[in-house]
Amino acid sequence: MNKVILDVDTGVDDALAIIYGIESKKIDFLGITTVSGNVPLDMTEKNTRKVLKLIGREDINVYPGADRPLLREAEYEYRVHGSDGIGNALDDMEIEHAKEEQFAPDFIVEQAKKYKGELTLIMVGPLTNLALALRKEPKIAGWIKEVIVMGGLVSKAGKGNSLPNSEFNIYADAEAAAIVFHSGLEVTLVSLDVTLQTYMKLEHIEELKGTKYYDFVLNSTEVFRSFSKKRYGTNGCALHDPLTIGYFLDRSYIETEKYFVDVETLSSLGYGQTICDFRNLWEKEPNVNICVNVDAERFIQDFINILKQA
Ligand code: BDR
Ligand code: CA
Hints:
single chain; alpha/beta; Inosine-uridine Nucleoside N-ribohydrolase, Chain A; two-stranded antiparallel ribbon; 12 strands; about 20% strand; binds beta-D-ribofuranose
């Protein structure tokens, strides 16, 4: 089976990505690493372990990583994910104390070395842990098979979700993103350009009625859906993070093209903007696969079906 480390800042859609990935039964998760992002690190870790308990896979270890961005102060996204990060859907769930103390970037380096050429990283939060791992051991760029990142927007200027031209995960730690983009790693950016086409609406959720995840999906996404309705006019939960898993499982969901992509770290208006040189004006080697098309309806339906069958 495919070996994967999933890096999360759980988060409503991170939780859905964890469930989808595990329930697909096609991925060997070596561990899940957590990072400060949607909510502070201790909460992303707790949420991740609660979700694993809900699934019944507490045997998967959780490795806490960076508790802040490389340089800037952390900015959280309570408006989208609720006061606890998962829409308070698992408030009553008790969890054991953490078992794993290994620092996430160390775990990434260790596993990249152990599984040279075999390991995929799926990153659905700010890229701080991977940037720290690269700083510690730059050779991992040659050892890791590929990195699938939920982040950025490249062709829909003005349609960002943190700044008009910036997406949250990249905006949350643009310096880390710059390190990752220029590391030589094989990076695919599953950006807002495609994820904003994958809204899970109430009618999709209702298909889960009577199944294991109905209550969690309905309750955890409530704040997210009403925020989306107010802000973007759609009462739905964009499946940002699950789409990275979808792409890992089935390449035919998304069409990609490779270009030179850089990230703005200096400007206040454009901090965290992912700039794609579609016309090769800078004459630089392409470094990032970007997503130009998504088969959204098929992906959403397949996602629902995996949850339904659980
Ligand atoms: C990304 O930011 C977070 O709020 C979500 O979990 C997702 O990873 C979307 O911009
Ligand atoms: Ca996330």
